[in-house]
Amino acid sequence: MSIKIDKPIVDFGIWREESAEESAAQAGAPTESSAPPAAPSAPAPAPVQPAQGSGKVVHMHEKLERPEMLLGSTYKLKTPLSEHALYVTINDVILNPGTEHELRRPFEIFINSKNMDHFQWIVALTRIISAVFRKGGDVTFLVEELRSVFDPRGGYFKKGGKYMPSLVAEIGDAIESHMRMIGLIKDDGLDEHQRRLVEEKRAQYEESVHQASDDPQARESFPPGAQLCGKCHTQAVVVMDNCLTCLNCGDSKCG
Q1: Radius of gyration of the chain from Cα atoms?
Q2: What pLDDT sits at residue 42?
Q3: Angle at 82 between CA 80 and CA 88, to 5 degrees
Q4: pLDDT class of 94 with cuts at 50, 70, 90
Q5: Which of 25, 28, 103 is nearest to 64 (CA)?
Q6: Where does residue 254 rank: exposed (0-12), middle (13-18), buried (19+ CB within 10 A)?
Q7: Region of 20 on the Ramachandran plot (φ > 0 left; ψ -120 to 50 alpha; else beta)
Q8: What is the mean pLDDT of residues 127-149?
Q9: Mean pLDDT across 232-251
Q10: DSSP-derived pairing of the beta strands 71-77 and 86-95
C-alpha cells in the first residue's frame, strides 16, 4: 500500500520492532528477569532398557565378520564335459543362534577340480557369488541367472534325465539344491495327490510297454525315447492316452 507525502521531510530515523521485554515494560507486565523463578521440572524418565536376553536381531550384511567355523555341504558334479568331477562347497553362517530368529544363510562358495581348464573363470565366479551371499537380502535370484547360461557347444543330460544347458547351469542347480535344503527356497514340488497321479501314470506306461524291471536303477530311470519336458527340463515326457505327459513333474498338454 502506497502513502502520499504532502509535507516536506524535515527529519528521519530507523524504525525497528520492539522486543518482547520492552513491550512488556511499557505495558506494565513483569519481564522475564522480574518474573518469579519457575518450579523445577520433573526429571526426564530414563530410557527403557531392553529385557535381558532380547538382543538385537542380526541380519546378513557385508560387514558381518566371518566366524572361525562354518557349516558347509559339498556337491559332486560329474559332467560329460570333463573326465574329472567338480566339487562345489557352500559354507553357511548361523545368524541369531538359539533364538526364535535363528537363520542359516550361505556365506561363501568354493569350487575345486583336478581339471584346470576352467580355473580362471571358476575362481572369478566363486568370488562374485560369495560377495553376493555376504551382501544379504534375497540371493535366490542367482539360481535363475546361472541356470540361464547356455553353452554354444550344446548342453547335456545329467543322471536322472535332467537337461543342463551348460556347466554354469549345473553349478546353479547345485546352489538351488543347497538353498532348498537350508530353507532359503521353499520346496514347491508336487503335492501328495499329484505325486500319486504321476506314479500311477508311470506304472501304467511301464506296464503297457513291458518295461517293468526288478533292477532298482532301471525303475529310477525314465523310459528311453522320452522327450524333454519344458517345465522341469527332464527327459521324461511320453505319450499317454494320446497326450504328452511328463513322468517327473506331471505336466500334461491336455491339462
Answers
A1: 37
A2: 46
A3: 95
A4: very high
A5: 103
A6: exposed
A7: alpha
A8: 94
A9: 76
A10: antiparallel
Q: Tens digit of pLDDT for each residue in 29-85?
A: 554 444 455 555 545 444 433 333 446 888 888 889 999 999 999 999 998 888 899
Q: Check: CB of residue 80 under 8 Å from CB of residue 151.
A: no
Q: How many residues in the chain?
A: 255
pTM for the whole thing? 0.59
| 99, 51 contact by CB (below 8 A) | no
Q: How far apart are CA 254 and CA 248, in angstroms?
A: 16
CA 202 to each of CA 195, 210, 227, 254: distance values in angstroms, whole numbers, following the listed order: 11, 12, 14, 17
Contact between residue 244 and residue 227 where contact means Cβ atoms under 8 Å apart: yes
Give CB contacts under 8 A, 24+ apart, made by 54-61: 55/99, 57/96, 57/99, 57/101, 58/95, 58/96, 59/95, 59/136, 60/93, 60/95, 60/103, 60/105, 60/133, 60/134, 60/135, 60/136, 60/137, 61/134, 61/135, 61/136
- What is the per-residue pLDDT for 82? 85
Task: Output the CA–CA distances (angstroms, integers) from residue 26 to 18, 23, 37, 176, 207, in the order listed.
Answer: 10, 5, 22, 83, 112
119 CB-contact burial (10 Å; exposed 0-12 / middle 13-18 / buried 19+): exposed
**Cα-Cα end-to-end distance for the chain:** 82
Strand partners, 246: 237
Q: Give percent of the chain above pLDDT 70.
A: 71
- What single-letter amino acid sits at 111? I
What's the Cα-to-Cα distance from 29 to each of 10, 25, 34, 39, 243, rounded to whole Å?
36, 6, 10, 20, 99
